[in-house]
Every structure is written in structure tokens, then in C-alpha cells.
Amino acid sequence: MNQPNILFIMSDDHASHAIGSYGSAINRTPNIDRIAENGIRFDNCFCTNSICAPSRATILTGVYNHINGVKTLDDDIDGTMMNFPKLLQQAGYATAIIGKWHLGHGGNSDPTGFDYWNVLPDQGDYFDPEFIEMGETKKIGGYVTDVITDMSANWIRRRDKTKPFLLMCHHKAPHRPWLPSPKYADLYEDVDIPEPVTFHDDYGTRAEAARAARMRIDRDLLPKDVKGEPPAGSAPEQIKSWNYQRYIKDYLRCVASIDESVGVLLDTLEAEGIWDNTIVVYTSDQGFFLGDHGWFDKRFMYEESLRMPLLIQYPKEIRAGIVNKDMVLNVDFAATFLDAAGATIPAGMQGRSFRPIWKGETPDDWRKSMYYRYWMHLDKEHSVYSHYGIRTHEYKLIYYYADALGTTGSLDERRQPEWELFDLKNDPYEMNNVYHDTAYAGVIDSLKRELAALQLAVEDEPYEGEYEG
């Protein structure tokens, strides 16, 4: 088998609705769109826990967070666990990771499975960032997206050309606090970015969790996020709109650097003559609220947070310009890359290869539902309740069990557990919780049974508090 190279490009918090090929109403991303034009766009790629470290751990290990142990931002990965880069090494690959790691440092938590690693400590800095290169800390001048891009392109040029390669290029941007490159500092300066249709959501039908979250554009963005204070005398609605414009423009300016980076890396593949034999992936570790429901950040199981962008090109197997609606998850990535490389997928991996899907051959028994769990109950900054749930192609059922269960979060603000149900066909923006509508009683019963089956299948345990719902 002529093993393909794998270039895995992942940004941080880049929502699919800020990508041109996903029909973005607020920006254009011509270089990222090249991947979609040359390959496949997955419209229903979801994360199993919408927060940075847990998603990254799931991508590496191919198992859910209750198995890999990285449930919250405060959990470091155990590098002695199997991961797909180790298995690719065993299959003859040269492997590297450059950029954001965010899974701990020192002990067993530095990157493992990589011949070369050069990563940011923790979140890293936008300007003149420090990197940890194979255990040695170095400071590098410049803008972080450009630095990661240059390192990645240089690694491709200098790689061991006798081997196929895996390069994981992990960008920090567009993570908060959204500091753009001077090159794009004035982008969108003279335009108003459209506000999302759910911008003025009042959470009227929702569980208490939606009202309690501290992620609101109108009150929870800090002066350092919006780089100033709203004009004196502004009314509350004016402050909300002012905050949004300041936030979203800097976010999109950071995305512009990411898009430029993707172009550089694609051009590098062409210059190296390895375009046809390289699987190129563009994704983000989760989605993000871009003013949707009046929020920034992620964490919730709502669509804008749950959905990940996933664009893949591989001319040898993927026809150009495909759009796919099948449900794929971040837990599937590891198995998919191993499958493409001709390597054995360990029995313990919980994800499933979606390579047949990109070849146009969706298996008859492909999943029709997915399981999600957010563990970081009532973190001090965002105050999002712990919850788990199920999403099908038609419905979403969420259970806010409101208990930290020993993980990071406050236990002194316990709340009554609540359910939400959304009819995604009739309510795609998830504005109307119909859990208490008797017309959906049969749907709820069916979804609860399927949720229990999914939990059992992935070896997770349901919440067993006193509340029965």
C-alpha cells in the first residue's frame, strides 16, 4: 500500500458558521474553502464534549473522556495511553505536532507518539510566544499563527522523505482574547457584521442552565475582550451590539490569519509534489457561539457549540466538491486515520472509521444518533451546568443533571436537574424547548431509551442522583 501523508490542521474555537464553504454570512475563507472544493465537507461532524482539552484528548485516543480521563480543562492526559500517532509510528510514519497542545506538560503529559514536537505551553500567547520544543522552552518572535505556519511548512520541507508523515498543525487562534495580527487589524473596520437571528434570545422556554450561563455578549465580555468601554450613555441594547461588533471583528481577524496559513500549507504540499498523496484535514476542536443565543464561548450541547467544521481532501479517494450529511464524531478521527494508513485499529478504540463515507459508501449500519457529555460543572468563569444528551437527525434531548460528580466545579450551587428537548426539523435554532409538550411524550420515551443504550455502549454511567425527571 502506498501510505498517504496526513496533514491535520486544527484551529481552536473556529465555528463552522465562520467558514465560507459552510455558507458563512459574516466572512469568507478562500484558502480553507479550497479543501472543500477539492474534497468533502461534512455538515454533521460533532464533538463529544465541547471544550478544548477533552476534545483534543478524544481526537488523539479515539475514546470518550470518561475513558481517557480528560473530562475538564484541569485534567492532563496520560501519555502512556495508546494514541493514533503511536500506531502510525509503528506503521512506518514520521510524526510531528506543532502548535497548541493544552493537555499538560511534564511527567507523562508531554506529547507522546511524535518524532518531533514543538508546542505552546498551556494556551500560549498571540505575540512573541514561548514554545516547548522536545522539552526545551524557547521564545520566538512574531505572531503565533504565522510562527506555527512557518514551523509546519519547514517541517514538511525537511521531513524524512523516505517515510509517509503525520503532521498535526494546531493553531491557538481564534481562541479568546482574540488578538489579531497587525496585518488584519483593520479588516472589517468600516462594515457592520450581521447579528445572528438568535442574538436576542431570552431563554424563555429553556432550562435554568441557559439563563445561568455567564457567556453573554451584553454583560460577560470583559474590557480586554472588546478592547475598551462602550460609548458613555449607551442603552443596554446599544452596549450589546457594540460589544458584539468589537468581539466578532477581532475573532474574524484572527480567522483571517488561519485562512492565510492554510493557503501556505496547501501551497507547500504542491511545491513538494505530494498534493495527490496527502490527506488534508481542516477542523476545529469544537464549535463556538458567535453571538448565537446572545453568547460567546461553547460548552453547551446546542448546535453552534456541538458542531465542528470538518473538511477533507485526498484526491486518490475523495471526489471534489462532495457534501455529506452523515453523523461523524471527533472520537472517529483516530480510527479513520489508521484505516487510511493501512494500520490496525485497536479493539479498544470507541470511534469508527468514516473512510468509507468519504469514498461515497456509507455503511448501512452507520450511526443515527450520538452521545455528548460536558463534565465541567459550574466552572467559575462560565457557569455552565454539567449535562449529557443525545442528538439524532431529528431531535436533541439534553439532561442537565447539575452535579460536578467529583470533577472541577462548585458543589455549593446545586440546581434542580432539568431536561430539554428540541425538534431540530421544526426548530433548527433551538429556541423552543418542547420537553413538557405532551405531543412529544412518545419521542421522549424513545430518546431516553436510546440515550441509555448509547451510554452503555460507550461504557459511561448515567447520573444516579435522587431526581427522577
Protein architecture, described:
- With 469 residues, this protein is an alpha/beta fold.
- The protein is built from twelve helices and 14 strands.
- It has helices at residues 30-38, 52-61, 65-68, 84-90, 144-158, 208-212, 223-226, 236-271, 303-306, 333-341, 355-358, 441-457, and strands spanning 5-11, 40-46, 94-100, 116-120, 130-133, 136-139, 165-170, 278-284, 307-313, 322-329, 369-374, 387-392, 395-400, 418-423.
- A hairpin with a 2-residue loop joins strand 12 (387-392) and strand 13.
Concise description?
The protein has 469 residues and is α/β, with parallel strands linked by helices. The chain has helices at 30-38, 52-61, 65-68, 84-90, 144-158, 208-212, 223-226, 236-271, 303-306, 333-341, 355-358, 441-457; strands spanning 5-11, 40-46, 94-100, 116-120, 130-133, 136-139, 165-170, 278-284, 307-313, 322-329, 369-374, 387-392, 395-400, 418-423.
